Structures are given as structure tokens and as C-alpha cells.
Amino acid sequence: MYPSMKAELAGRDGDLRLCLLLGIAAWFLFLDHVPHNAVSLLTMRNFGFSGATDLFVFVGGYTAAILYGRMMLERGFVVTATRIFKRLWQLYAAYIVLFVIYIDLIGYVARKSRASELISDFNVTGIVDHTVRTLIHGLLLQAKPLNLDVLQLLIVLMAVFPLVLFGMVRRPNITMATSAGLYAAARHFDWNLSSFPNGKWYLNPFCWQLLFVLGAWLALSGANQIRTLRTLQEFAILRAIASFYLLFALAVTVAGKFPQAGLVPDVLRDVFLPDHKENLAPYRVLHFLALAFLFAYIVSRDWSGFRWPALQPIIKCGQEWLAVFCAGVFLSFAGHLVLITGPDSLVMHVLVSVAGISIMTGVAYYVSWSKRQDQKPAFQARAMTGLPEQGRFAK
């Protein structure tokens, strides 16, 4: 089993589709996080039940399984767990830096601009009356500042990922069934984590873990399961059903925004809207799976479009998603500030969106360039001249 799994993981390493999807998710999250941004009408959440968050979590689980799955097969559980916790610490450190600077920046701008509504808009009301308590709860991932919920969710999912990966490597189907059972139980018994100063997590980790584990399960699927999936994709009837469901989701979503149009009966709008994002409604999961099913059929691993110059910025942002996401959080606040203090026009919305995406792309290219510099030999010039190290310094 393990040799075949190693071969499958080796074959999926370096799949540019994952980078493309992560880049799209990062861009869409930024656009969605700028309140009242007209350009955000073009993002995933306006065309169906699922959105950029679903894509981010699913692809995150898929890529984590590829990276750490091979490590667990080759180097064992202990080594892999330490590497996962190292990545977990990076995520947590990024969250703490974002949280502290973010809420301080929001409070400062709100005081200077006398726009007190910013404090409530970005859900940091407690920072005024209970500063120390809010900071402590923020360290414990219990605060709910706007736009940091996705990073909080990823931290929790990565914290339990060593156990999930251990089960996936040995009993993948049982582990996947356990994840589905936890999802069903959390929805039935209303399990969730509490937040400060009140309420619960906006993205329930007991439910959202399903997409993360599902991504890992597909990444670690054996050759037989992959062949089964490819066989299913060849059936035109299944592609037609998936396409019909996407069109149905589009009609319901549009009907929710324009109820006077009468596109769908009111009873359907009441069932499917609102989308119940907190507990990841089943029809939302089904919508995302339909999208993934058709995307995998249309876009192959060796798709020639990956060489298109227009897609290179998106792919680069996907490769450096953490830095891009962190930049996007600050840029979304800056964009909101510009929109509420400047002229409220479509041109301004477009300029804010384009500027934000351009800066995020610049951050991605800089981080990538910086990593390449770290990988270069320290004494490359010495190697080129052929002089020994001591001889050069002796001169």
C-alpha cells in the first residue's frame, strides 16, 4: 500500500492547478473582505452556494496531505508531526502579528477619523472597553475580528492534522467516514467553539474540517480510487447533473439578491438562503464538489494555459498564499477606509480592487525572490573564481 501511495503523491507534487486555485481564492477573499465593494460581485459566492473560503480550506487540506503525506511515509509520524507543528507555529505567529497590529490600527484610524463605526464594522468593539481581556482572548483564538476567521480556522485544522494524516495513511476511508460523522454530529448537536465577547466561531471548525479532510482524502487516494473518479468524469450524465446543480445554485443565489424577479419559488429561497456558512450546509458542500468535479475534468494537470502570462500572477500568489493572505487582510481594511472616506463610485471601487490585487501580487513576487536569495550559496563568487576561502580573506 505504502509504495503505491508514495507513487501517487509523487505524481501529484507540483500540480499547478493547486497554485492557481489558491491564488484565485486569495484574490477573491480580498475582494469579499472589502465591505460594499462592487467588484466583489464577481467572486464565487455570488454565483452559487460555496465561495472562496470553501476553496481555500479544501485546497489547503489537499496540499498539506501531499506535502506531509510523503514525509510521514518516508520519515515517520514523529518527524512529520514536528514539521506540521513548525508550520502551525508560522500560521499562529502570522495570526498574532495580524491581530495585534490590525485591531490597534483600526482603533487608531477610528479615533483619528472619528469614524467610530469602523470598530463595530470590523468586530473589535471589545478593544475599547476591555483592551487587555480582548488581547488575551485574541491569543486564545477566541476574538472575532473581521477577516481573520479563515486564518483562525486553518490554525485549528493544522493543530489536529498530525492525527488526521496518521489515520489517512493507514485507514483513509475510515478516517474520512469519521470526519463525515463529526460533521453530522456537530450540525445535529450544534457543537461549536465559543468566542469573545459573545457568540460562537463564524466558521465552525467541527463542520469545516470536512472540506479540509476531504481534500486530504482525495490527495491520498489510491490508484483504484483515482481510476474510479476518472471513470465517473467520463459519464456525460454525471457532468450534466453537476452542471444542472450549478445552474440551480446560480438561480437561487441571484433570486436571493433580486427577489422581485421571481426566478425561483419563495419556498426554495427560504430553504437555501441564507447559505448557513457557519455550519457548512450540506448543499454548500455539494455545490463545491460539483465545481471541483467539473474543474478536474476540464483543466488537466498538463493544461497549456498554465504557461499563459496572464495566469502567472495568480499562480505566484497561490505559491506564496500565506504572505498574500496577510497582506490582503490589511489591504481590505485600507480599501474599506478609502471607500468610506472618498467618493463612492464604481471607478473608485475598481481602482481600490486593482490596487489591492497588484500589491498582493507584488508581495508574492518579492517573497518568492527573497526565498531564492536564501537558497543561493553564501560564497558563490568564491566558487566561480576557484580561490579557497582562506586565501581570499588573506588578501
Structure in words:
With 395 residues, the chain is mainly α. The protein has one domain (2-370). Helix content is 73%, strand content 0%. Helix 9 (161-170) packs across helix 10 (172-189), helix 13 crosses helix 15 and helix 17 (321-341) runs antiparallel to helix 18. The protein starts with a helix and ends with a helix. The model is unreliable at 389-395 (pLDDT under 50).
Topology (SSEs and partners):
Blueprint: H1 2-12, H2 16-33, H3 52-75, H4 77-113, H5 117-121, H6 126-129, H7 131-139, H8 149-159, H9 161-170, H10 172-189, H11 205-219, H12 223-233, H13 236-257, H14 266-272, H15 282-298, H16 312-319, H17 321-341, H18 346-375, H19 380-385, H20 389-394
Helix pairs in contact: 1-3, 2-3, 2-16, 2-17, 3-4, 3-11, 4-8, 4-17, 9-10, 10-11, 13-15, 16-18, 17-18
